[in-house]
Amino acid sequence: MPYADADGCAIHYTDPGDGDAPLVVFLGEAGFGAWQWGWQYGALGPYRPVVVDTRGSGRSDAPAGPYSMADLVGDLETVLADCGVRKAHLVGCGLGGCVALAAARRTTRARSLTLIGTPAAGDDFQPADLAADPDDPEALRASTTALLSDGFLARDDTPVDQIIEWRGEEDATPSARAAQLAAIEEFDPGPLYELTLPALVVAGGIDSVVAADSSEQLAEGLPNGEYRGFPDAGHLVTVERSAALNDALAGVLDSVDE
């Protein structure tokens, strides 16, 4: 499994190595491991999906915090360099969406943005329902169910137990999650009108971490932003509405690469 060296911090990423296929990089929510992209990873057809373990989560190193947005953007750049790619489509959830926005502003690395449950500013981010010690199954269950809608939880095939297992293996410790959250506390995307690349902004209507109004505000501020709301979904819209979300994501990618 590949690792990129970000000034001595080993950043793990998953890369199928599909040659010259356009790269799509997935950037995760605060505290979450790569498990959260399991519903998108194999659904992108001709694209090369790369999932980055945020420093502090999964198999990446967890140096003492706090982490800055510059640290996380630097980690992304290191992964892209390790993949031998100059530019990529960036897909982020929550904290990962903020990293994608920051990367689009600070670098020329982004080809498009897909921002899921991403706030218009750091003050709009409410992380309480993300908090769970990966060694505490009951805390993981409470956190997971808080991030999903009641309607989805009532389905017979809802994978709560599987998500809890994955979170126990991959999620950040409380201290590492706190170090990640420090990067978002003062997050300000700057003048959105300057970010002219194609952008899809996705929100769940009952998201307890980032209110849909904040995501809609973000989409309205981006010159080429498109808003897609799922009124009955929670923060884990990637799980609840995976098929529709994947179709929308493919549409953005294809529109850039056609």
Layout: helices, strands, pairs:
Elements lengths: L2 E4 L2 E6 L8 E5 L20 E5 L16 H15 L4 E6 L1 H12 L3 E7 L20 H10 L3 H4 L6 H11 L3 H12 L13 E6 L7 H10 L3 E6 L6 H4 L1 H16 L1
Helix pairs in contact: 1-2, 3-5
What strand line-up does the widest sheet have?
1-2-4-3-5-6-7-8
CATH architectural arrangement:
3-Layer(aba) Sandwich
Distance between the termini: 31 Å
Question: How many distinct helices?
Answer: 9
What is the general shape? globular
Quickly list its features:
9 helices, Rossmann fold, globular, alpha/beta, 258 residues, eight-stranded mixed beta sheet
Structure at a glance:
With 258 residues, the protein is α/β, with parallel strands linked by helices. It has nine helices and eight strands.
Could you please describe the fold and organization of this structure?
The chain has 258 residues and is an alpha/beta fold. It contains 9 helices and 8 strands. The chain is 36% helix and 17% strand. A hairpin with a 2-residue loop joins β1 and β2. α1 packs across α2 and α3 crosses α5. Strands 1-2-4-3-5-6-7-8 form an 8-stranded mixed β-sheet, sandwiched between helices. The radius of gyration is 17 Å and the shape is globular. The longest helix is centred in the last third of the chain and has 16 residues. The mean pLDDT is 94. The protein has one domain: Alpha/Beta hydrolase fold, catalytic domain (Rossmann fold), CATH 3.40.50.1820. It starts with a strand and ends with a helix.
